[in-house]
Design brief:
about 230 residues, alpha/beta, Rossmann fold, seven-stranded mixed beta sheet, 9 helices
Length: about 230
């Protein structure tokens, strides 16, 4: 059953994404059809039992919107003692991450194909997550679309409520105005502390993605935000 924070956040119903058809490659489709039953978790209104899902009781990191999942797989491979849960709605990316899971023989990654807000409200218990990764979320640059941005209150309050004491929230964007927006929203979220004076320095353990490299090649700057649960 969702806690009070989850009940309050049910009012946040403007989606931060638009489902697009997106062409799946044959490999992505095969991976989705054959591997999702093994590594996918159906959406439910009951809280997840992490130990049951992963077969062990290890720290849990949740990545929201993992795109094609390359960075997710690389981080999980480098940290076998950590459990990783990816939340994504775009099926080609899910298929690609499943392919990476099989190729790298990863046992510490699971996927939920559902809206992140509802997933956190219903399936993720309060004070149970060691960290959140949110890499290059859609900036929704047009002013009329700002309401669709993921990093905005009250969703940031929900994120903070799910973090363990000392847990972290790590966001990266290549859109300057969204970086300023997210910095203000996270700074105003009760329970979150910014250990840096403004934006964070690059975290050496985060791999550079192909998307990020394309942006850097176009002279796009990357802004990083790192907050901890006080």
């Amino acid at each position: 059953m969702a806690d009070e924070m989850g009940k309050q956040s049910t009012e946040y119903r403007i989606r931060s994404y638009v489902l697009r058809a997106g062409r799946m490659s044959d490999a992505q489709r095969r991976s989705y059809e054959t591997l999702f039953p093994c590594y996918g978790i159906p959406f439910d209104t009951a809280a997840l039992d992490y130990a049951s899902v992963f077969g062990r009781q290890n720290p849990l990191i949740i990545e929201i919107g993992f795109g094609m999942g390359i960075a997710t797989a690389m981080i999980a491979e480098a940290n076998p003692g950590v459990n990783y849960l990816g939340i994504e709605v775009h099926r080609p990316g899910i298929g690609k991450l499943l392919w990476e899971i099989e190729r790298r023989t990863l046992s510490n990654v699971r996927i939920i194909e559902h809206d992140a807000v509802e997933t956190l409200e219903c399936m993720i218990s309060a004070a149970s997550v060691a960290g959140f990764h949110i890499f290059f979320p859609d900036p929704w640059p047009k002013k009329r679309h700002h309401k669709r941005r993921l990093i905005t209150r009250p969703f940031t309050d929900l994120l903070a409520s799910r973090l363990l004491p000392g847990g972290y929230l790590y966001m990266v964007t290549d859109w300057a105005e969204y970086g300023d927006w997210a910095l203000a929203e996270l700074s105003a979220t009760d329970g979150l502390i910014n250990p840096y004076d403004g934006f964070a320095p690059p975290q050496s353990w985060r791999p550079e993605t192909r998307f990020e490299r394309k942006g850097i090649d176009k002279q796009h700057k990357v802004w990083e935000l790192y907050f901890t649960q006080g």
